[in-house]
Design brief:
The protein has 663 residues and is mainly alpha-helical. The protein contains 30 helices and 8 strands. The protein has a 6-stranded parallel β-sheet with strand order 2-3-4-1-6-5, with helices on both faces. It has a two-stranded antiparallel ribbon with strand order 7-8.
């Protein structure tokens, strides 16, 4: 299996927790192990990371279950499937046995009805059921294809819990002895073990919610008791691992909530490391934190067992401290270059372009690299790279030119969980610089109440809201990032992930009237609040270049601090352009035409300023900065900054320093 890139921190946390063996011998022996949940946007590689962790732990007991690809099952049924996976034999490793759970699963099998009025008869019925389980086990182990049987239990239909109990591996010659010696005695309570098992059988036949919950609880207790017993009986060098995919789907929280309740009620720790994935942080009852995610989320580089322990409150008010959320991050430029090495051999500009477009979103990176690699030849490729998002996807089979443009296909997949109305509302929200401003300004007033109330939660808990990127030379192809933040600190408003917003804006631009209406609404809202740079931002998005040049020319004379003016320049020219690229023409050749067409007056009276604003506006889109070694528009931007420095009154040395960032 190929190692995914960018998950080294997750690997380190996994190995650290796996080696902290919990044998359950000492009471009060520490907090035990967290339920680690890998979270991230759709396409962040959660399932890939989870399966890689399974591969790393493949020589020790481990089990995998996907809540998203199976019918909803009760907690005790999931415990049975996990026990089956954990009970596989591994070289030089003693196999795990589950006598308590096995006996319980036999007792609650729908096909078994124990006589509650005759203890002797009930005992005979139970012995007969165990004998049938033994026969199932022997037959299964003699089958030629048993090694591959039920490799992914979440996808296989099993006819009954009794048969499942038979498939939990243990020596076939000892099922009754094990059941009597360990499993049977464990069920002793106020009454004899047999009486308790008969009562459990009766409860399993009830449809009452409390009775069903009691059965689930008792069998999940048996599951944990078996694990503790096995680690107490024979020392092991690693905790066993359970990998749970999509716990925000039906049944995931129900199982884990019960598991954590049992952990909290117990007096000893258990040797079970749970690593899960989720795309909706709203379904994770972890420790609360401010922000759209709603829970405390750590980066892979921050994550460690010690970090989890430090955050445990004293005393804990609830069970939320047992959850530990780690967000899978976007890929760095170097990691994208690693993935795109094959494409870069023919098209060196592609990895950097793909990283700038997607921000390193893992699934989108792979998709774009694959499409470019299949679609773009070695010669005359610059137009294709500028129009990369309009390329039809390169299918592995079928017609070579079939399918929708890449941007539409990707956006549809990223937003597959949203309703059509929510998708339409989110497209409109793309016009706002900060996500919350769209609702505050009234952009969503025409949508249903449900959409208006749910959209922020869906986008926030889906982790599509991020901190804003500093606007400066680094975002236009120059050098230096964050050096203007001292002028105007970030407002603290979360913004849409740049890759998602770019796709939303491309969709919005296909409807010119809707584009103008959205930006005009935002412009008016900011004007009422005296936010002049934001007013100019939306004016530029509407193509009012003359107004923007007039404002910036006036401010250059008015403000004494060059950095303040540069901040406004970059903040305003970050505005989206309805037609950001013309694939057939380079951005350098487009600057003069666009400046003269949108600002005929300023092009004559403030030529350098007009060309500078236009060039920075175009450079805000990564596709207008080809090739990577010497980005398009850098020469124009540098020249216009030097011209302004030369002719400004007063002259500004800071403008010359800024021009040097584009050399």
């Amino acid at each position: 299996m190929t190692r995914p890139v960018g998950i080294q921190g997750v690997e380190a946390l996994y190995q650290e927790c796996r080696s902290r063996v919990q044998d359950g011998r000492a009471e009060g022996a520490g907090p035990g192990l967290p339920v680690t949940v890998l979270v991230g946007t759709r396409g962040s590689g959660r399932t890939t990371a989870l399966k890689w962790l399974g591969y790393l732990g493949s020589h020790r007991p481990h089990a995998y279950y996907d809540f998203g690809s199976a019918a909803r099952r009760r907690p005790h049924e999931i415990a049975g499937r996990l026990a089956y996976g954990l009970s596989h034999r591994f070289p030089r490793q003693p196999s795990l046995r589950f006598p308590r759970l096995t006996l319980g699963l036999v007792v609650v099998d729908p096909g078994l009805s124990l006589d509650a009025t005759d203890a002797r008869r009930a005992g005979r019925q139970l012995r007969r059921a165990l004998q049938e389980v033994r026969e199932h086990t022997v037959a299964a182990e003699r089958a030629t294809d048993f090694a591959g049987l039920l490799q992914d239990l979440s996808l296989v239909q099993i006819p009954g819990a009794g048969l499942l109990a038979g498939l939990i591996r243990r020596p076939p010659e000892l099922p009754l002895a094990v059941a009597r010696r360990t499993g049977f005695s464990w069920y002793a309570g106020p009454h004899t073990p047999l009486a308790e098992l008969v009562a459990l059988n009766q409860l399993s036949r009830s449809e009452a919610p409390d009775d069903r919950a009691a059965v689930d609880r008792r069998l999940c207790e048996a599951f944990l008791a078996d694990l503790r017993g096995e680690f107490t009986r024979r020392r092991r060098d690693r905790n066993c691992v359970v990998l749970l995919d999509n716990i925000d789907a039906d049944g995931g929280r129900e199982f884990l909530d019960l598991l954590l309740q049992l952990r909290d009620a117990g007096t000893a720790t258990d040797p079970l490391l749970v690593v899960a994935t989720a795309s909706d942080t709203g379904r994770i009852p972890g420790p609360f934190a401010r922000g759209p995610a709603g829970v405390r989320v750590r980066t892979p580089e921050q994550a460690s067992y010690a970090d989890w322990v430090r955050a445990i409150p004293s005393p804990p008010p609830d069970l939320s401290w047992r959850w530990y959320c780690v967000r899978l991050r976007d890929l760095t430029q170097g990691e994208v270059a690693q993935l795109g090495a094959g494409v870069a051999a023919r098209l060196p500009e592609v990895p950097a372009l793909v990283h700038r477009l997607t921000g390193g979103h893992p699934w989108s990176v792979v998709r774009l690299l694959d499409t470019v690699g299949r679609r773009v030849g070695q010669g005359g490729h610059e137009a294709a790279l500028r129009g990369i998002l309009s390329l039809p996807e390169a299918p592995t089979d079928g017609p070579p030119d079939g399918g929708p443009p890449l941007d539409r296909a990707v956006l549809l997949d990223l937003l597959h969980a949203l309703t059509p109305d929510q998708r339409s509302a989110l497209i409109t929200c793309g016009a706002a610089r900060a996500f919350d401003w769209a609702g505050d300004a009234g952009l969503l007033d025409s949508f249903s109440l449900h959409t208006r109330n749910s959209l922020a939660r869906v986008v926030g808990t889906g982790l599509w809201l991020v901190d804003p990127v500093p606007q400066d030379a680094a975002t236009r192809g120059g050098r230096g990032s964050g050096y203007l933040e001292h002028v105007h600190p970030a407002p603290g408003a979360f913004v849409l992930h740049p890759w998602l917003r770019l796709l939303l804006l491309q969709t919005l631009a296909r409807d010119p009237d809707r584009w103008d209406e959205a930006h005009e609404t935002m412009q008016s809202w900011h004007r009422l609040r005296g936010r002049t740079p934001d007013v100019m931002y939306h004016a530029l998005a509407r193509g009012h270049l003359d107004d923007v040049v007039d404002h910036l020319a006036h401010r250059l004379v008015e403000v004494p601090d060059t950095d303040t003016w540069l901040y406004e320049l970059y903040a305003i020219t970050a505005a989206p352009l309805r037609e950001p690229v013309v694939p057939e023409r380079s951005a350098t050749h487009r600057v003069d035409q666009l400046a003269a067409g949108l600002a005929p007056r300023s092009f004559v009276t403030h030529r350098a300023m007009t060309l500078l604003v236009t060039a920075l506006w175009l450079a805000a889109d990564p596709r207008n900065r080809l090739p990577g070694a010497s980005p398009e528009l850098n020469l124009t931007i540098s020249s216009m900054l030097q011209d302004l420095a030369l002719h400004s009154d007063p002259r500004r040395a800071g403008l010359r320093h800024e021009a040097a960032k584009y050399h």
